[in-house]
Every structure is written in C-alpha cells, then in structure tokens.
From TrEMBL:
InterPro entries: Leucine_aapep/pepB, Macro_dom-like, Peptidase_M17_C, Peptidase_M17_leu_NH2_pept, Peptidase_M17_N. This is Probable cytosol aminopeptidase. The keyword Cell membrane does not apply. Its EC number is 3.4.11.1, 3.4.11.10. The keyword Cytoplasm applies. The active site is at residues 280, 354. It holds the Pfam family Peptidase_M17. Mn(2+) 2 binds at residues 268, 273, 291, 352. Its main location: cytoplasm. One of its GO terms (molecular function) is aminopeptidase activity. Signal peptide: none annotated. Residues 348-355 form the Cytosol aminopeptidase domain.
C-alpha cells in the first residue's frame, strides 16, 4: 500500500473514503465538524438517531454525504475525550483500518492523525499511525492453498496533517513509521515460519540477504568456525540436532566516527525448541518455532535502524540452532566450558537459551560496546510474572533500564523493570562447576537473567525476556514483532543524543541551543 502525507480540508477531498473521529459524547473531531457543517448537519443528525455513540473502536460508514466530494465517510469512535491518550489513539487507528478493509474503497484520507494528544507532536502521530496500519494489515498465509482470501487493503492511504508547515515533520514520521513497520513485518515473517523451513541455515541466509540489500556488513559462521571461536556452550545445544548451527554477525556503521563504540543487539535464535533430553510436553510444542523470536526482533530492529539511516554504529549477533534430543544431545549433569572460560553444570536441557546467549554475550566484548541488549524468549516464569502485556526488563545499570522502559512507553511496547539482586545468584551455585544453568522454580525469570549477567561484566547490559510478548496464541495466533518498536525508539533516542538533540519524552525534539531560554523542567 502506498502512503502519502497531505494537508487539506476534508470536505474538499475527492477520494473514495475520508476517515474522521467522534468522541463518546457525540462530539465531533475538528475534521468531522467541518464535514458536518458542509453537509448541513447530516452527521450530527445520524448521531442523534443513535446509530453511533462514539465508543472507542466502533465505526460507522456513511455513503454520499451531502455537498462533499468523497464517496464515503468513515466515522471512528474515540471514546471519552478527556481519556483520549496514546493507547486510545492507536486503538482508533487500528479500528479504522479494519473497517476500511471491509469496504471497496481503494484510497482513503485519514484525519485521525490530526487529533490532539497532549505532549505528542505531528511526527509521532504519523509514525504511530503508519506502524499500526502496517501491523493491522499484516497477513501470513503463504502456505495456504485452500480458503485463502485475497488481501483487501486500499491502494493508497493519505495521512492528514493540520497545517502545510507540518508536512516536513509528517514526512519524517512516515519514514520512521515505515521503517519500524517493515522491521516488525520482517520479524513476524521469520517467527511465523515453521521450523522445517526456518532452520538456522535459512535464518542466516535471510539475515545475509537483508543486510546485503541494505549495504550492511555480514559474517556467517558455520559449525567449524563456531568451534574455532571456542563457543562450547553454544555448540553443546546444537549437537543434539541434525541441522547445523550458524552464528550471525551484522554490522552497520552509521556514526560519523566509524570507530565510535557500537550498540550491540543479541538475539536468541533457537529455531525449534523441543526441550532436548528434558523434553517439553507435547501440547503446544508447535509454538516452540517461536523460540527464535529474539533473533527475529533483533534482525527486524537492525533492518529498521539501517533503513532509517540512524547516525550510530550497530552490531547484531544471533546464535542460531535447534534444541533436539538425539544420542549426542546434552544430558542433565553434563558440564560445558563457555567462551568466557566459566563452566556450567547443565541440570535441565530445556534451559538452553542461556547456554547459547552466554557465548554470544562474551563474543560481544570484542566490539568494545557502549551498550549490549539481548532479546530472548527465555523463561515461562516471565509469563507467570508479567503475563502477555509487558516484557521482562533486566539491566546491570538502572539508567539503562529507565531508557528502555521510557522508549517502550513512548511507542506502546511496554516493559517492566525486574530486580537483578545478588541474593538471587545463590540459586545458581553448583558443587561441580562455576554455576548451574537453572536456579529452581522460585524467581525463574530473575535467576535466568542473573545467569546471563555473569557474562556481561565488561559493559552496560540489558536483557529483555519476551516469552510472554513475542507471540499470541488462540484465534489471533502469530508473532507480534515485539519488541522492535521499543528497540528502535531506544536507538533513535541514542542517535538524538549523539547528534546533540535533547530527548524530551512526548514532546518535539529540539536542538540543545533551542532550550537555552527554557525553564528547567
């Protein structure tokens, strides 16, 4: 679908559909009021008859509005005006796109992007509308041969801005939104692929193709090269599968100084997780194809950052393999040596994600990074703690945790800062090795993060446990693309700081010099 940014009055749009908002009090948005005045109160009359109350997410399609040039007007419920915030805005956008796909309109102009949300600017409004639109239109049906419905989406969607002077900011928002949306779609495609297609080699090939198309550097390490790196812990997981492992390394140098310390993203790439010898229950095991969603979101975030040409240096690392139970597989009680030299007693082979991540985190040291963030569907315990709403967030620096949490709040991709206290490290003590790979049921997500923290002493590090947020089950089953929005916003904030811009959450970004006369708030 083609996106466009435009400034203009709604009653003058010669288009198949114009989208405007209605609050729960039946109060019309500014654009809806202009249409209503042109139509001599037609919309107000419809609302008075009770056909729509303006509840959030409801829609009503009107045809042939008097004295207007458009074929249709789509009314979208905005809920209570005093409660209309970022979350409600995204929901209204999503509802409008779903309703639009049920019509035959091949192009539309949305005036929801002109709504007023306190502390959010035009760039943000357009960016979020674009991301939500692409997310709503996303489909994964490439393996269907029967009952496959043709995609119904408009050929062109124009997002309106209030003034002509807002067009430049709107275009910036569109570029950002498209990059984030493309990154999310890339991550969702990889996550939704079945394990017999998305193998470690396939994942490596997709990463290589993506990086080369963007002009980024790429290195793919095969099993022999991984062994030469002495990643014994990583390889111990891979040896249970007939599918050979791959270690993926992508590099993007967008900073003016190519020697500037990079940010490193590390993604868990277990393309199928049977649990190994500690075999998982059969029910729901098909969803273990999603155990590489950490890798998928790291690759999607890398793609978005490069597409946006962010002025920073970025590295993406993905240890990719399967966790399967053959005669060579890890056994409970085995001891392996990590790239760091530390030894691990494996008590449960289904706690394999940390075994591949620890070597990748040690490998990250060679880049002398400013920050390392790993992303992993690591523990079922995180789902018990936080459900499917918030990502578990751990960090060895509270300031880094605050940065990530604020970035997530800004884009509706929320995380919750969890404790990483030394007392939990006691649960990882082993009588036979430097540590064991599980700490028991109590605080399982926390002890998993504590395990990873032992390999991150050389840099600022954060861990995102996305076991509860990477995919959905049930009728809406599928990968979510989270936390691509959070990671890209974090990277954008870091880029703004590098450029000397002030990151003022929820407000327009301005140069430091512009703030000289501001009050200190």
């Amino acid at each position: 679908m083609e996106f466009n940014i435009k400034s203009g009055s709604p009653e003058k749009q010669r288009v198949a559909c114009v989208i405007v908002g209605v609050y729960e009090s039946r109060k019309l948005s500014f654009a809806a009021d202009l249409l209503d005045r042109t139509a001599n109160g037609f919309i107000s009359d419809v609302l008075r008859r009770g056909d729509m109350e303006g509840k959030l997410g409801t829609t009503l399609l009107l045809h042939s509005l008097p004295h207007s040039l458009c074929d249709r007007v789509l009314l979208v419920g905005l809920g209570k005006e005093r409660e209309f915030r970022a979350k409600e805005y995204r929901e209204a956008i999503r509802a409008s796109i779903k309703a639009l796909t049920l019509t035959s309109a091949n192009e539309a102009v949305s005036y929801l992007t002109e709504l007023n949300i306190k502390k959010h600017d035009v760039e943000w409004m357009i960016e979020q509308a674009t991301v939500v639109t692409l997310d709503t239109l996303y489909r994964f049906d490439q393996f269907k041969t029967q009952g496959k419905e043709p995609a119904k989406e408009p050929r062109k969607l124009t997002l309106a801005v209030p003034r002509r002077s807002d067009l430049a900011d709107g275009e910036k928002g569109l570029v950002r939104g498209l990059a984030i949306g493309h990154g999310m779609s890339f991550a969702k495609d990889l996550g939704n692929l079945p394990g017999n297609v998305c193998t470690p080699r396939y994942l490596a090939d997709q990463a290589k193709s993506m990086a080369e198309s963007l002009g980024a550097e790429v290195n793919i390490f095969d099993e022999a090269a991984i062994a030469e790196l002495k990643m014994e812990s990583f390889l111990s997981v891979a040896k249970g599968s007939d599918e050979p492992p791959r270690f993926i390394e992508l590099k993007y140098f967008g900073a003016k100084d190519k020697n500037e310390k990079p940010i490193v993203l590390v993604g868990k790439g277990i393309t199928f997780d049977s649990g190994g010898i500690s075999l998982k229950p059969g029910e729901g095991m098909d969803e273990m194809k999603y155990d590489m969603c950490g890798a998928a979101t790291v690759l999607g975030s890398f793609r978005a950052a490069v597409e946006m040409k962010l002025p920073l240096n970025l590295i993406a690392l993905v240890p990719a393999c399967e966790n399967m139970p053959n005669g060579r597989a890890n056994k409970p009680g085995d001891i392996v040596t990590t790239l760091s030299g530390q030894t691990i007693e494996i008590l449960n082979t289904d706690a394999e994600g940390r075994l591949v991540l620890c070597d990748a985190l040690t490998y990250a040291e060679r880049f002398n990074p400013t920050t390392v963030i790993d992303v992993a569907t690591l523990t079922g315990a995180c789902i018990i703690a936080l459900g499917h709403i918030a990502t578990g967030l751990y960090a060895n620096q509270d300031s880094l945790a605050r940065e990530l949490s604020a970035a997530g709040e800004e884009v509706g991709d929320r995380a919750w800062h969890m404790p990483l206290w030394d007392e939990y490290q006691e649960q990882l003590k082993s009588p036979f090795a430097d540590m064991q790979n599980i700490g028991g049921r109590p605080g399982g997500s926390i002890t998993a993060a504590c395990f990873l923290s032992r390999f991150t002493k050389a840099y600022d590090w954060a861990h995102l446990d996305i076991a509860g947020t990477a995919w959905k089950s049930g009728k809406d089953k599928g990968a979510t693309g989270r936390p691509v929005p959070m990671l890209v916003q974090f990277l954008q904030d870091r880029a703004d700081i590098a450029l000397g811009n002030v990151v003022r959450r929820g407000r327009p970004r301005r140069e430091v010099s512009e703030l000289a006369d501001d009050d200190a708030d």
